[in-house]
């Protein structure tokens, strides 16, 4: 089934390649004629506009996508916005005399709570400079309101909507579909909380999964409500009542409750003009993020060559070579070794945003992190996720820093096998046969039934993998194996919970991790630069990669045009993953 879908999409993609290559050539010529590094001329009384209604990555290019206004099914016309770039812009704008304030445009941010917390903290710091932060939107999602509540003034269109009803988590289950298709999933795991396999063997959440899921969303919700309470002056019990009664969905009630103010855009625009002290007939100067990052930096450049390197590890851990939205152990190790051997790099901050993946790849990267910290300090900074394989990486560092809303832990391993014999025979009319030189020569060669002995072999290997994972975690956290196992078992924790049980050292964001890296490498403020690795790909590089990767193009086309394609590709990826899996519930949707 997966191969059929893949080859069908490949045929469609092939028909489009000539046109796409032509576009790439045109873009290349255009890029050669105009340098994206040219300095942007910033005007007086400017307002930094942060449009956060786009997918967020840890590190993204400063360049704009010239095709963003032309939707197409083969490559993404929506460029990602980089968290590191946002934080950098706010730090620069804080001391930039030409920037008078920030206009926060956030309706439906495609980001996690930990990333939004980083931005929120940066906006709090920005406000302390005496400059303003104003937010306006036609509607606010739960996440959007959490971020926007940090503003001095928060406005909503009178006909808009505020989604404020607490946090929920949702999983998708495939067991009934598998039963209908006569596909038999076989799972091998350690830990009752290791729930990543549940979508294939259950129709709903297990009691253990419900317990851990409710625990971590309550923890996140508590952090979110605490910060909203502090910003808006509304008690947490009152916020709870508002959420339970859905009162805030009515804009007029939301205003009366003190959650926001109602305004049309022209009225909000007038407020911005007053804030920057220009006349009603004058035009506002709005500066978008990409332009501002090409303006002259008001912060003097640090003399000398000393660096703290931020190494970004973002996405699912897939083993060997990574791609868009994934971490390849070969790619990661290559970058880490360069930084380890670079004498100008005095410390490394490992920025992790990963739900895990291949246990083999995780172990390879963990080993290299241990070798790197023998040479220089290595600090782990957790973003939205650093769970399972993501935690495997972090546990090798000298210090682990997480946001209170980070999702981490999930220390456990599982394996999964799909028996497709009856599906092929009864649904497709396809049968299989084979001959072998030895009793188990055919073991794991095709998606068929396993004997009890073969199942025991896999389970024993998973058990051994779990023992290795927990032993290394216990050594890294300097705690007994028994204590580590009592908080492992595949259980997911928030950063705040993980700090209390010893899985995390410090609570904070990337700035906290950088400060710790400087402290451990005995660098003072003004003595070092911060450099991000690997370098964010330009739009042209991303487009060229898309054109030469049929798989990436197939995925984008399918997701845009076939509603069921996401599930098919998820199952295909499940089959291709290398080794056993150290992964959290990867189909989780947190809202």
TrEMBL record:
**What are the TM regions of this chain, as residue ranges?**
7-29
Q: Which domain of life is it from?
A: Bacteria
Q: Kindly indicate whether the keyword Transferase belongs to this entry.
A: no
Q: Where is the Peptidase S49 domain?
A: 126-277, 373-523
Provide the alphabetized UniProt keywords: Hydrolase, Membrane, Protease, Serine protease, Transmembrane, Transmembrane helix
User: Entry's InterPro entries?
Assistant: ClpP/crotonase-like_dom_sf (IPR029045), Pept_S49_pIV (IPR004634), Pept_S49_SppA (IPR004635), Peptidase_S49 (IPR002142), S49_SppA_67K_type_N (IPR047217), S49_SppA_C (IPR047272)
User: Which Gene3D superfamilies does the entry mention?
Assistant: 2-enoyl-CoA Hydratase, Chain A, domain 1 (3.90.226.10), 6.20.330.10, peptide peptidase (sppa) like domain (3.40.1750.10)
Where in or outside the cell?
A: Membrane
Signal peptide (from-to): none
UniProt lists the family membership as follows:
Belongs to the peptidase S49 family.
Kindly give the NCBIfam families that the UniProt entry links to this protein: SppA_67K, SppA_dom
- Its name, as the record gives it, is Signal peptide peptidase SppA
